[in-house]
Design a protein that fits this description.
Elements: H1 2-14, H2 21-44, H3 55-81, H4 94-102, H5 105-121, H6 129-135, H7 148-159, H8 161-186, H9 197-208, H10 221-266, H11 276-285, E1 287-291, E2 296-298, E3 306-312, E4 315-317, E5 324-326, E6 331-332, H12 334-339, E7 347-349, E8 353-359, H13 360-369, H14 371-389
Antiparallel strand pairs: 1-8, 2-7, 3-6, 3-8, 4-5, 4-7
Helix pairs in contact: 2-3, 3-5, 7-10, 8-9, 8-10, 10-11, 13-14
Length: 394
């Protein structure tokens, strides 16, 4: 019983099943609470919002904090409890699996989101309430768990950590050289502004980054020459850094998209018996498509340019007088492609749907290469065409 409950909680918190209504509700509530925490933390820093003259307002913020800490604490403990269900923890003892999970970046963020409040509540915090209000803004980092974009950025930074660190070392070297040279050139002319190499580093930083606040400017000819060289060097250095990040970011997006497409392809019954390399080839040709409810995917009379596979959700094929509902694992649009005709029926999404679109040329290549897939699709297409040609015989 306990193991079944633990697996269910794991599915809700970590399973990433968008079709699970409970998981969607839990994720939505946690996202809402995180957002409200960010708003409340910002409001608390405004003058007059929290004051001794308004005890009711102060009590509201206090109870909201207690509620938030309680919810985030339950979430943190639950994630530690279900950590043993993670595939990468297979074979590990429960205690070791949970300790290993607790060292993951996201669980460290979860701990940092609640730990300062506990330290303050129990009088163990080496800081005052104002510092606590600011530290709690770390809860916004919990959004990383629910944001694919933030997860992608984190993955890119980790993947390119060596290259980006190398670029950072070059920036640090340029920072030291620039501050040293500008100190030698400007110290005598502006001893108050360029009093030392560490003091000159602020000018070097804002010049290398081409920010140029204007608070520190060279006045000697040598200083201006050095400044020009530093600005041009800074542009080149940060373009290099940006290029490393941008290329890796695009690659990571493509990898994630391929993984999503792979998972969608494996849900189609016609592809389940294919070797992994064939599935990979098909996945590379598929284009994921997400449509909202009541969206018309294909229209009657259109030229057929692709067929579609349903990975999640339901669609309705408008066949008079008996519409047909298709769900995960079904496909549509193949009849017009096989017989090179216009679309005979419109297809509308009943729910939000995740589809895979296969272009006409790739569709024909797929049928030529995989005989089993061709037989399966042609058999269903023939059955559907006969039903359309003879609706009274259904």
């Amino acid at each position: 019983m306990a193991e079944r409950l633990r697996r269910r909680v794991y599915t809700i918190l970590e399973g990433w099943d968008s079709s699970d209504p409970v998981a969607r509700v839990v994720d939505g509530c946690l996202l809402t609470l995180i957002g409200l925490n960010v708003v409340v933390i910002a409001l608390e820093t405004m003058p007059g919002i929290v004051s001794a003259d308004a005890p009711g307002d102060e009590a509201f913020f206090l109870w909201f904090e207690v509620f938030s800490v309680a919810v985030f604490s339950v979430e943190y403990v639950a994630r530690l409890w279900v950590a043993v269900e993670a595939p990468e923890m297979a074979g590990l003892r429960a205690l070791r699996a949970r300790l290993k999970a607790g060292l993951k970046p996201m669980l460290i963020v979860d701990l940092l989101a609640i730990l300062p409040s506990y330290l303050f509540f129990f009088g163990l915090a080496p800081f005052d309430l104002r510092f606590l209000r600011v530290v709690r803004v770390l809860r916004i980092l919990k959004l990383t768990r629910y944001s694919p974009a933030l997860q992608t950025i984190a993955a890119v930074i980790y993947k390119e950590r060596t290259s980006m660190l190398s670029a950072l070392v070059v920036v640090v070297i340029m920072l030291v050289l620039s501050s040293s040279l500008i100190y030698l050139a400007e110290h005598e002319a502006q001893p108050d502004k360029f009093s030392s190499i560490p003091a000159s580093m602020w000018w070097a930083m804002e010049t290398l980054t081409t920010v140029g606040y204007g608070d520190l400017t060279p006045v000697t000819p040598a200083g201006k020459i050095i400044g020009s060289i530093v600005m041009l060097t800074g542009i080149g250095l940060f373009v290099l850094w940006t290029g490393i990040f941008a290329s890796s970011f695009v690659e990571e997006l493509r990898t994630r998209e391929f993984k999503v497409t792979w998972n969608m392809v494996t849900k189609v019954p016609q592809f389940t018996d294919l070797p992994a390399e064939d599935v990979a080839e098909i996945a590379a040709k598929m284009r994921p498509l997400v449509v909202p409810p009541r969206y018309t995917i294909v229209r009657t009379g259109e030229t057929a340019t692709a067929m579609f596979f349903v990975a999640e959700g339901e669609v309705e094929v408008e066949i008079f007088p008996n519409p047909v509902v298709l769900g995960p694992g079904d496909f549509f649009g193949e009849v017009a492609l096989l017989h090179d005709t216009e679309r005979r029926n419109s297809v509308i999404a009943l729910t939000e749907c995740r589809l895979m679109m296969l272009e006409a040329d790739d569709f024909r290549t797929l049928l030529q290469k995989h005989e089993s897939v061709r037989h399966a699709i042609e058999a269903i297409a023939t059955e559907r065409k006969n039903a359309l040609d003879n609706p009274n015989g259904r």
